[in-house]
Amino acid sequence: MRVGVLTGGGDCPGLNAVIRAAVRKGVTEFGYEFVGFRDGWRGPIECDTMPLGIPEVRGILPRGGTILGTSRTNPAKIDRGYDLVVENLDKLGIDALIAIGGEDTLGVATKLHDRGVHVVGVPKTIDNDLSATDYTFGFDTAVNIAMEAIDRLHTTAESHHRALIVEVMGRHAGWIALHAGLAGGANVILIPEIPFDIEKVCDYIEKRFQSRYAPIVVVAEGATPVEGTMALASGELDAFGHVRLGGIGQRVADEIEKRTGKEARTTVLGHIQRGGTPTAFDRVLATRFGLHAIDAVRDGAWGTMVALRGTDIVRVPLAEATGALKTVPPERYAEAQVFFG
């Protein structure tokens, strides 16, 4: 059997561990041949491939990013995009395809499955917002990076008597902000699921300044204020129609300074959260996903995605994985609110 592998969407720590595990088991136990597609869906659209055998995956377990490269290429935005993918997979003799990605990449995989492509999905989203799996790899690494940054910022905030705003990833879901903020002892956490009242945020800031400590505000990049309370700039769209985010942290800092008279500074972690070495948790989870993905290929479980449920890796329909986002429920946010101010 000839198996294609691609990684789509944003990179995150653990992608290489998935690739390594699928190739190692597929070659040694099943005798499969692997073909790597470069840069997400651009690879099969343009027939851009690379060898993917055991020599190519040696030493990649601790590496961040993806040796295959990635992109946000959307076949739906390219003339005959889906047809080209199907035709080129057939031309290259690809019997099965492992697609590693988030809702957009797996949404494309779902449509290809409907066209008869033998595809298996692996969930990848640093935001941990795929509803079909308890956790996705890369999330734990991002939270630990953000937590360490918050730990370091506490002493600077206290030394200069400033409010420090930490902007973290999280377009539609505030899981990184919630976990990093709780672990790092943030005084306010702002997430996309619940519009924030800037006046209340400023009240928390003032309350914190009454102690000998300085406030830390963690804000997800997709957080928004209550309508009409703050002006927000709109950004350009990517190939899947998502607004390019960034800047909410600075706007919150500006409002805090204007409304409280206290000095406020912003730290935007951005792609720092994506890069570098994955944590042990993410290496193990990604490895297990890769092993179970190649098992799904062997079993002909087309149109499924591997997922973590409790401590078990299970298979779920691709359509279930892309049907709805997993967002922070109000009761989880209420837990964090106990520590605000």
UniProtKB/TrEMBL annotation:
Gene3D superfamilies: 3.40.50.450, Phosphofructokinase domain (3.40.50.460). The record marks 124 as: Important for catalytic activity. Pathway: Carbohydrate degradation; glycolysis; D-glyceraldehyde 3-phosphate and glycerone phosphate from D-glucose: step 3/4. It catalyses: beta-D-fructose 6-phosphate + diphosphate = beta-D-fructose 1,6-bisphosphate + phosphate + H(+). It is an enzyme of class 2 (transferase). The gene is pfp. HAMAP family: Phosphofructokinase_III (MF_01976). One of its GO terms (molecular function) is monosaccharide binding. Non-allosteric. This is Pyrophosphate--fructose 6-phosphate 1-phosphotransferase. Coiled coil: none annotated. Mg(2+) binds at residue 103. It comes from Acidothermus cellulolyticus (strain ATCC 43068 / DSM 8971 / 11B). Keywords: Cytoplasm, Glycolysis, Kinase, Magnesium, Metal-binding, Transferase. It is found in: Cytoplasm. Its main location: cytoplasm. Residues 2-297 form the Phosphofructokinase domain. Homodimer or homotetramer. Its cofactor is Mg(2+). The record marks 104 as: Important for catalytic activity and substrate specificity. The lineage of its organism: Bacteria, Bacillati, Actinomycetota, Actinomycetes, Acidothermales. Diphosphate binds at residue 10.
